[in-house]
TrEMBL record:
Record has NAD as a keyword: yes
GO-annotated molecular function: (3S)-3-hydroxyacyl-CoA dehydrogenase (NAD+) activity; NAD+ binding
The organism of origin for this protein: Eumeta variegata (Bagworm moth)
UniProt protein name: 3-hydroxyacyl-CoA dehydrogenase
Catalytic activities: a (3S)-3-hydroxyacyl-CoA + NAD(+) = a 3-oxoacyl-CoA + NADH + H(+)
Taxonomic lineage: Eukaryota, Metazoa, Ecdysozoa, Arthropoda, Hexapoda
Enzyme category, top tier: oxidoreductase
Amino acid sequence: MNKLIGFTRKFSSSAALNSVKTVTVVGGGLMGSGIAQVAAQAGQNVTIVDIKPELLDHAQKSIQNNLQRVAKKVHKDDPIKMEQFVKESISRIKITTNVEEAANVDLIVEAIVEKLEPKQELFNKLDKISPEHTIFATNTSSISVNAIGSGIKRKDRFGGLHFFNPVPVMRLLEVIKTESMSEETYKIMMEWGKSVGKTCITCKDTPGFVVNRLLGPYSAEALRLYERGDASKEDIDIGMKLGAGYPMGPFELADYTGLDTNKYVLEVLHKLTNNPVFRPIPLLDKMVSEGKLGVKTGEGFYKYKKYKGEARLARTSTNAFQCCVVLCQSSQANIACEDPYCILVTKSDASAKDIDTAMKLGAGYPMGPLELADFTGLDTKQSVLATLYKETQNPVFGPIALLDKLVAEGKFGRKTGEGIYNYLEKI
Ligand code: 3HC
């Protein structure tokens, strides 16, 4: 009898693992259309729901354009296959303004406005009209996943699937595992992420998850550096690109993701963590109130002609401001492994490997912050942080128990064979 139960469980679980064939994406904006695109590209039938018909039209057009970019890469020497790929992918996408028409699917991913109440209302409604087996996921960038799903009954079939902009290009998917999520749902989410071409990392329902938690202090420190007049925005951007190998500088990235999004994420992180590194930035508040939101409005830190990056920076200037590289990277590695607030390593909200993977695939960094700390040397990092803390009294540079412990044990990173990671070959 027990054997039979075991078999049935195994069977139902593996059947479920292959079961995401139909997907609904609620929200037809930039993120929603990107999510729909990667699912359709992977052969799944997708419905995009939005209350605004004009957004749905726009989503279809932008998906068509982006599919053509993908097709050029995948089938570059074969125009017939290129056309077929675009045509077939597009034919798998339906649009509707009526969520009830799209509730009967295997997976529903929500990517609507970044506000708690509308998200809660949507899931409460979906919970009533969707079949039992439907799994729900939110693409929230900073709101608590548990709070979003607090009103639904199927808490075991609910979690976070956090994508990165531009969705078709960034290879990362953060799977947010809540305490009430079942192992089966977690496996389905991880498998689904893989099926749409993403590398999945796992994070608990902790403020900002991995990437936004680390991008927040980076972006905030860059803004304050500029606000104080310590360096120009151009030099800070060049510094991070040439000194750290990032694909965009912090001001280019803020313009790209939207200053309103940046402000909102910082506000939420400040509220949830009370960490002063996330405190309000007057310059950001002013720009948002003036409607300067970045690429989408034609002006942010830079001006954009027809929303295309007119103000692209020269990648070869020699005037890079290296000090901001140290400041920004230190703050990120600090947040990644510090004791009191976070997060990641010491509180095991995410593993060291997943944190590094997240920053490489979600933000295009050449190394993750913890790999970089091992690379530069934990002893060096400790002394740089001590100097920065002494000079600025900024708690983001304050002592880190994990770092102090590793250095005291002589584990300095790559040069000693062990640091956050172990580099010694096992015999
Ligand atoms: N769809 C499909 N392909 C696209 C695309 C899209 N929307 N956008 C760009 N691409 C492709 C291009 O076709 C090009 O392909 P190719 O190399 O084969 O020619 C490639 O991507 C590079 O594009 P570009 O040449 O136009 O420009 P760049 O080389 O400057 O790369 C970038 C653009 C990929 C955006 C790069 O600058 C980058 O990685 N920036 C960092 C982005 C980042 O950090 N994103 C995360 C933001 S945080 C977030 O999203 C979380 C949220 O919660 C706020």
